[in-house]
Amino acid sequence: MNEKILIVDDEETAREALSEVLTEEGYEVSTAQDGYKATDIMKLENFDLVLCDIIMPGMGGMEVLKQSQKQSPGTIFVIMTAFGTIQSAVDAMTQGASDYVVKPFNFDEFLMKLKRLFKEHKMRRINISLKKEISQKRRHERLIGQSVELNKILNLVNKIAPTSSTVLITGASGTGKELVARAIHDKSPRKDEPFLPINLAAIPSDLIESELFGYVSKSSDGTTALSEGLFKVVSGGTLFLDEISTIPMDLQGKLLRAIEQKEIIAIGGRAVERVDVRILAATNKELTEEVVQGRFREDLYFRLKVCEISMPPLRKMKDDIPALVQHFITRHNTELNKNVRGIDDNVAKRFMSYQWKGNVRELENMIERAMIMCEEDIITEKDLPMDFINARAVDGDGVILKKVVEQCEREHIKSVLETANYDKKKASSLLDLSLPSLYRKIKELKIE
């Protein structure tokens, strides 16, 4: 589709000449002889770009700019000005104009400028679209549940996030340590800056230093080049160092200096560089024991645990299982092109009595596998792997089946209501319930 351009100029000759040139270039062009006519046209049509003279009788270009921003804030607005009024054009840019051109202008240069503006505008729209897409995905990557334990963690996150303090997140694998780190970043003043998670255990020990701090290389002709490390790449943002216990002992002092002094020196370099990075670290090991064994510096340990969040295992947060199950089903329905609605009572009972040694990660993997096997819209025991079915249930928490079923039912109905934009008639159809039955369920399960 060709871009639509509106030309606003009280000089008929200039207006027609511009229209002819832009039409020949393939643009869809409309014209207006004054600001009043332009605003009327903009009420009826959307334009990709408005090209407007700054000085016109009646309504001038600045007022047209204001009207354009009100009616179509995403439209590119370019001011045309004579040499003597360039300052006015610059002032217009501070008010939101995209650019300006000086009359009389070279058409070749003018057309190149338009192409550049359209390209930049397209890239901005793509960027906005990607940010929305990432935001949508991030909504599926959040801490899920309403247990007492999780609420304590969320309260800690809310207190810690606004600060710049280092945070140590501890807990077994699969408990959601990275999700906590993301939550801290997303609620912090650095939320619009990069968040970079790094698994130190996955980087060869002899490469960790160059990855974190960068290195200076020297070519055969004697020139040097700096390859920036992650501390520079993520400048202004948050660096999440997972498996912090695996960092080599000889690098721990350098990391401590980076945290305390906010200074780094690249390998092979001499210049001290200032860095602005918040450090969040995580481990599934007991760092105090690592300190005792001489594998971890005590001063670094205390610097990292200015604030500490301990993630409980899933078996200690069983009240969150129904919400997590529904969350993972909703996520994987999209990825697997399925329409699974939930789990049956027997599966719910097994889930609530299982130990989940792999924690939330194991639960998600179980849900994904069951959904792949599931041929109906409800996951049943036949969709679960035999080793899970044969596992001995450990129900030391006295979980009552009725309570489990109610929790699963509540989460499922809430999810369907959200999908139906809280249209209860549509939701009752999706749930295969009568409307009175849905209202009764909402009341019984205390769904707000």
TrEMBL record:
<keyword id="KW-0805">Transcription regulation</keyword>
<keyword id="KW-0067">ATP-binding</keyword>
<dbReference type="GO" id="GO:0006355">
    <property type="term" value="P:regulation of DNA-templated transcription"/>
</dbReference>
<dbReference type="GO" id="GO:0005524">
    <property type="term" value="F:ATP binding"/>
</dbReference>
<dbReference type="InterPro" id="IPR011006">
    <property type="entry name" value="CheY-like_superfamily"/>
</dbReference>
<dbReference type="InterPro" id="IPR002078">
    <property type="entry name" value="Sigma_54_int"/>
</dbReference>
<dbReference type="GO" id="GO:0043565">
    <property type="term" value="F:sequence-specific DNA binding"/>
</dbReference>
<keyword id="KW-0597">Phosphoprotein</keyword>
<dbReference type="Pfam" id="PF02954">
    <property type="entry name" value="HTH_8"/>
</dbReference>
<dbReference type="InterPro" id="IPR027417">
    <property type="entry name" value="P-loop_NTPase"/>
</dbReference>
<dbReference type="Pfam" id="PF25601">
    <property type="entry name" value="AAA_lid_14"/>
</dbReference>
<dbReference type="Pfam" id="PF00072">
    <property type="entry name" value="Response_reg"/>
</dbReference>
<keyword id="KW-0547">Nucleotide-binding</keyword>
<feature type="domain" description="Response regulatory">
    <location>
        <begin position="4"/>
        <end position="118"/>
    </location>
</feature>
<dbReference type="Pfam" id="PF00158">
    <property type="entry name" value="Sigma54_activat"/>
</dbReference>
<dbReference type="InterPro" id="IPR003593">
    <property type="entry name" value="AAA+_ATPase"/>
</dbReference>
<feature type="domain" description="Sigma-54 factor interaction">
    <location>
        <begin position="143"/>
        <end position="372"/>
    </location>
</feature>
<dbReference type="InterPro" id="IPR058031">
    <property type="entry name" value="AAA_lid_NorR"/>
</dbReference>
<dbReference type="InterPro" id="IPR002197">
    <property type="entry name" value="HTH_Fis"/>
</dbReference>
<dbReference type="InterPro" id="IPR009057">
    <property type="entry name" value="Homeodomain-like_sf"/>
</dbReference>
<keyword id="KW-0804">Transcription</keyword>
<dbReference type="InterPro" id="IPR001789">
    <property type="entry name" value="Sig_transdc_resp-reg_receiver"/>
</dbReference>
<protein>
    <submittedName>
        <fullName>Nitrogen regulation protein NR(I)</fullName>
    </submittedName>
</protein>
<dbReference type="GO" id="GO:0000160">
    <property type="term" value="P:phosphorelay signal transduction system"/>
</dbReference>
